[in-house]
Amino acid sequence: MWEIFVYSIIATCIAFVRGGCPPAGYSLCNCTEVRTSELVVSCDGLNYPQDIKYQLEGIPIEEITELAILRSKDLRGMRPDFFKGYKKLERLSLAANPNSNLVMPVGLFDTIGSTLEALDLSTSNQTEQILPPELLAPLGKLKHLDLSNNQIAQLRPSMFENLKSLQVLDLSDNQVAGLPAYVIADLLDLKMLDLSNNRLQELPLDLFDDTQDNLKIMDIGGNRISSLTSTHFTMMPNLTVLDTRKNPINALSNDLFSGTPNLARICFDGIQAAVIPPHIFDSIPLESLDLSDLRNVRALPESLLSRAGKTLKELHLDDNPKLLEIPGKFFRGLSALEILDISNTGIELLPNSFWTDLPELRKLKLSSNPWLLSVPPPKSISPQLKYVDAANCPKFPVSVKNWVKANFDTTPLLLDFPINIYRSVNKEIQLRHITAAPPATTAPPFGNNNPNSKPHHHKPRPSSNDNNGGSQWSGNGQSNGKPNGNQWSNNNNGGANDWQSNSNSNTDNNNNNNGNNGGGGWFNFFGR
User: How many CA atoms are closer than 13 Å to the CA of 162, on its beta-carbon side?
Assistant: First the structure.
């Protein structure tokens, strides 16, 4: 039996001499060599820092560039020198440890501060009491910091002052009720700021003390903010994406975006304003707009989108039960619009020129409109239109329902505005998943020294590449047949009196789900 012991020692020595991951079974931490002398390591479900460190001793730690310690039940007692010897560590995740009692000692990041670029502390039950500014101070090269889905109620004024290189800051899904003056004023390289799903009652005017030229993405959805003015955005001239969903914003002004000439994607889903100013979008290159779930809006200005005709590609007007009419020229000139959702509204008729106004339309959702009598006869329909979801429109004539089924893919469309819209906007963002070993009890890093014991067999968990960001489509495109005018019951363009109708109405509400699922993922960050 001594041959087995000698073989294991020789194999280990060879692994250390040549570098790279050790043979399978030598450590309960999963190791992948992505490039020569660059290792990605995940310790999933292991407990106690000293035992995790013992497992990592079976891997050349000086070659580890990415390390994840996930789903531990006990991380108490982590010492400041835990990461000593990690010379190449660029990305570190201590996420998904909500029950581990993780308290990181000051000095923990001292030895990796010169190399670390991404730190994920999401879903680890962190509070402001156990996150002193001194802990993060050594991380001068950090670009991505994820503190989402924790218990942080307030931020210390100096919490981020040493993170001069930070580009992405995710504080979503916490309990932050207020922001100290200039708390992120030193983050001049910041590109994305996520403050969604907190308890903010206002967006402070003194958040910055200088122009944030690099800030492109801001998510303040799911808070308690009641007012926004143009002054809030004067320090963000290059803002591209703004998500304000589910805030009690009670009024909007025509000059709200006068200082953001590059703003392209806006989400107003669920705000409480009763009026959308007619010229609010005139000065911006609008590409995607969400005006869904505006419970107090009864009408939309006819000229609201008149300046967005060549740029607007995605429009959401769904879940507006008080919206009874769409002005006749509302869609006029929207020559670039590809995606339109007007499901679950109170409208009865669409404009007569609906089809000709939208020559590039690809996806259309009309479902759950209990009062919509029909659609205009298709005189000139977009050849790109492949998907039409017209389910639960009880007043549609049978001939119209048959026409839709015969010419389009009617698979129900999920046209929700992206949950974290910045993840679908910036092409550099990537969702990294490491195939991790299943939770296991701690064992020696070099296998079992008892030759009479059976070897450990670790079945890797399949990796997941699900991305929570971006619009999601169901079904496959079908060929778009030419419309047949004979399928229509009459030629009255007004259509209100002569269309066949059904007295039974279906008022099912297919509400969009725009909640921030927060952190816990393996580095939901911009790519390197």
Answer: 13
